[in-house]
Amino acid sequence: MQDKAMLMIPGPTPVPESVLLSLAKHPIGHRSGEFSQIMAEITAGLKWLHQTKNDVLILAASGTGAMEAGIINVLSAGDLVVVGCNGKFGDRWGEVCDAYGLKTERITAPWGKPLDPDSFRQVLEADTDKTIKAVIITHSETSTGVINDLETINRYVKAHGALIIVDAVTSLGATNVPVDDWGLDIVGSGSQKGYMMPPGLAFVSVSEKAWAAYQTATLPKYYLDLGKYRKDAQKNTTPFTPPVNLFYSLHTALTIMQREGLEAIFARHQRLQSATRAAIKAMNFALFAEDGCASPAITAVVPQGIDAETVRSLMKKRFDIALAGGQDHLKGEIFRIGHLGFVGDRDILAAIAALEAVVYELGYKNFSLGAGVAAAAQCMG
Q1: 200 and 253 in contact (C-beta within 8 Å)?
Q2: Per-residue DSSP letters for 201-224?
Q3: Which of 286, 287, 299, 322 is least enclosed, having the fewest CB within 10 Å?
Q4: How far apart are CA 236 and CA 39, in angstroms?
Q5: Dihedral, 51, 52, 53, 59 alpha carbons, nearest 10
Q6: Where are the beta strands (DSSP E) in the chain?
Q7: Sheet arrangement for strand 202-206
Q8: Which of 165, 192, 200, 161 has its CA nearest to residue 179?
């Protein structure tokens, strides 16, 4: 049926109608007083969402742009950086470091497993000369549905004194990321995830400790020079032409989020995660991430005996529901169900019901029809 598409992927995520409609407003001058007023309200909302008094800067970029900006603004060529790699995006941050001539020590875990905080402790405690300048962690690994123990790893980083740079692209707005309470130095995120709006904006939270490092960082930068954004943000403006209509939608989305409240947002995502995982278990499929390290934003499923891409294709063809596929070596091995942003109980129940119909049609009979929906519903009471 036309115009009934349903996004159940980890980004872009569904967008509320009011956020979409805000995109249709006439643009205004980005040097006008009207834009400055919107910018001031957006900045206050971003600090609320990040639970911080730090600068939260806005880039016209993706989450990768936020992370690249965070890395290059506080480091110099030849600096030693520890990078946690247990999925595609942890690997990506290592590649960014390589591209800028940073020395990296990768701490790895198999895809689908969490990073071991004790591995970080050992590496950091052994660095008695304090040569490690930063530690880069992906909080919620989008490619696998694993959430890493950022709080514990961060404690070891703080004891060492290095900067911590956090990819919170699929965790911010889905689970608790208390920037000030944890003392996080750089936190990057993107608009198309928990923010409930279209792609195109990226956000970088920067601590005072990170700004001190900025003063001596020598990696090349111009458009991604966060100092420019900080200077202009203090005047409620931007150094370069912003996508004005996306600022409208961000303003609307933040208003919706503040109306719901942080605790309610986090509780909703936890409920959706529990319901999705319960449904998959009831269907006797395997979950790629174990219960203790499951992301509240996305669930990766191993559909034994069925090609994951075939499942995705039929879900789209029969029900116009988009699921995400496996990346790199996991293509065809897993599919991923996004449950972050503007997603509610109804969306999960509809997606699970459609999934049951699809796998049954494909010949998978190792479950009772309705078992997945019933298990999900029991988690929503």
Answers
A1: no
A2: -EEEEE-HHHHHHHTT--S--STT
A3: 286
A4: 5
A5: -110
A6: 6-8, 55-59, 80-85, 103-108, 132-138, 140-141, 146-147, 163-167, 186-190, 202-206, 286-287, 298-302, 321-325, 335-338
A7: 55-59, 202-206, 186-190, 163-167, 132-138, 80-85, 103-108
A8: 165
Number of H helices, E strands in the chain: 14, 14
d(CA 349, CA 272): 10
- How confident is the model over 149-167, as a mean pLDDT? 98
Token pair recorded at residue 199: 């792609």
Distance CA 270, CA 280 (A): 16
Beta bridge partners of 266: none
Three-class DSSP category at 25:
coil
**Preceding omega of 12 cis (within 30 degrees of 0):** yes
Report whether 354 contacts 370 (CB < 8 A). no
Average pLDDT over residues 152-170: 98
- Give CA 57 to chain center in angstroms: 16
Q: Is the pLDDT of residue 1 over 80?
A: no
* Residues 105, 108: Cα–Cα separation, whole Å: 10
What's the pLDDT tens digit per position in 94-119? 999 999 999 999 999 999 999 999 99
**One-letter identity of residue 97:** C
For 101, 204, 309, the CA distances from 274, given in Å and listed in that order, are 42, 30, 24
Give the domains, in start order, of the chain with CATH numbers: 17-259 (3.40.640.10), 261-378 (3.90.1150.10)
Q: Judging by beta carbons within 10 Å of its beta carbon (0-12, 13-18, 19+), is residue 214 exposed, middle or buried?
A: middle
DSSP class of 33: H
pTM: 0.97
The two tokens of residue 207 are 């601590």
Question: How many Å apart are CA 271 and CA 269, to the nearest integer?
Answer: 5
Contacts for 356 with CB less than 8 Å, ≥ 6 apart: 283, 367, 369, 370, 371, 372, 373
CB contact at 8 A, 138 and 173: no
- What is the DSSP pairing of strand 298-302 with strand 335-338? antiparallel
What does the pLDDT look like over 33-90, one tens digit per residue?
999 999 999 999 999 999 999 999 999 999 999 999 999 999 999 999 999 999 999 9
